[in-house]
Design goal:
Elements: H1 10-26, H2 31-45, H3 48-59, H4 67-72, H5 82-87
Helix pairs in contact: 1-2, 1-3
């Protein structure tokens, strides 16, 4: 595994940055719409690998994530772990 793929590498920093940009875009919407907007965007445009990495960050405390991203997490589709995909 390259350093970019570790939980504390560049990939994590980039994902947090990207998720926070999405939250910043939607934060001017009414609360319910903002949460749904963040979740819908991530569900539509992020590949499962990115979503898995986002949930790994969330599952380890969500450090650095905008509260709107954390609130939207329950609406974001959690993809199957890598191991389940490989064994299918």
């Amino acid at each position: 595994m390259s350093p970019d793929e570790t939980p504390h590498g560049k990939t994590e920093t980039k994902l947090v940055y990207m998720a926070n940009q999405i939250a910043t875009f939607f934060k001017t919407q009414p609360a319910g719409e903002a949460v749904q907007g963040v979740a819908t965007h991530i569900n539509k445009f992020w590949e499962p690998r990115m979503q898995r990495q986002l949930f790994a960050i969330i599952d380890h405390g969500g450090s650095g994530l905008n509260p709107l991203v954390l609130e939207a997490a329950s609406l974001i589709h959690r993809p199957a772990p890598d191991e389940e995909i490989k064994s299918a």
